[in-house]
Amino acid sequence: MDPYLPKGTLVKHGTSSAYLLSILEIGLVPTPVRSKRNKQNEPAHESERSIFVGTLAGYARAIYAFSNTMHATINRKEPPHIPVVLNITLGRDCPLLADEDFIELPDGQTKNGNARPDGYLREQAQAVWSKYESGSIVLDGGMPASWINSFEFPAMFDPTEEASKAQLQKLSSDVHLLSLAYGQNRLKLPISKWHADIKQYKKNDMDISRLTGKFRFKESDVERLFDMPAMQDPNKLFEYTKMVWTLFSQQLVEAGLVRT
């Protein structure tokens, strides 16, 4: 029997605030992979019709989306945005593929392009999910927005005003969670490490089980996010994202994940 995540499974999907309105309107859709086969209108592999989901790995995808555009944001070539994590309840049983970042492929097969081994991704899916809680679900036509319950985001405040100790602590905890997620992906750490960290950090009054901000995934609540002072003013949002980026970079250096 092919692996799948059953209806009712709670998963997360990392994205950016830049895509919230689009997701609200049309749901989540697979990102097409451009290849020679696509141009010839040949059938797409399952992995090209899939949507990434996970638990801690959802936060990793959110910070990757943030990081990939941050340099352009600093140079004023891209508008600023914040990392966002969607909380999802699967509306039906969904075929599962392994997250390629957590598997080693057989000799002679590659992760990308025409040699993408869907059969191997299916074979490894359950083992990878059990150890890392990360994978992709195959959904022809995408995921309806009705499956998305809520969305999370880092602690928000006006960066032009002096932040309180509590606000700074919440943002630090949020960025720490994003850093841990980044580290899991880079170091291939099992999901059990995160569960142990959650218990350990609670002893120090730090919650790294989720991001501080959390709204329902409804039009009115998405508007609430964009109505926040730090989101309404492009200059304030620019300063806020620089603050998040600086904290994230510092924590990666402290964790030994990047060099100065």
Number of strands: 8
| Main beta-sheet strand count, sense and barrel state | 4 strands, antiparallel
Radius of gyration: 19 Å
Derived structural class: alpha+beta
User: In total, how many domains does the architecture comprise?
Assistant: 1
Summarize the structure.
Helix content is 43%, strand content 16%. The chain has helices at residues 20-26, 36-39, 56-74, 118-132, 165-187, 191-202, 219-226, 229-232, 234-254; strands at 4-5, 10-16, 50-54, 83-89, 94-98, 134-138, 148-153, 213-216.
Would you kindly provide a written description of the structure presented here, covering whatever features stand out?
The chain has 260 residues and is α+β, with helices and mostly antiparallel strands. It has one domain (1-255). The chain is built from nine helices and eight strands. It has helices at residues 20-26, 36-39, 56-74, 118-132, 165-187, 191-202, 219-226, 229-232, 234-254; strands at 4-5, 10-16, 50-54, 83-89, 94-98, 134-138, 148-153, 213-216. The longest helix has 23 residues, at 165-187. It is globular. The chain starts with a strand and ends in a 6-residue tail after the last helix.
Mind sketching the topology for me?
Blueprint: E1 4-5, E2 10-16, H1 20-26, H2 36-39, E3 50-54, H3 56-74, E4 83-89, E5 94-98, H4 118-132, E6 134-138, E7 148-153, H5 165-187, H6 191-202, E8 213-216, H7 219-226, H8 229-232, H9 234-254
Antiparallel strand pairs: 1-5, 2-4, 3-6, 4-7, 5-6, 7-8
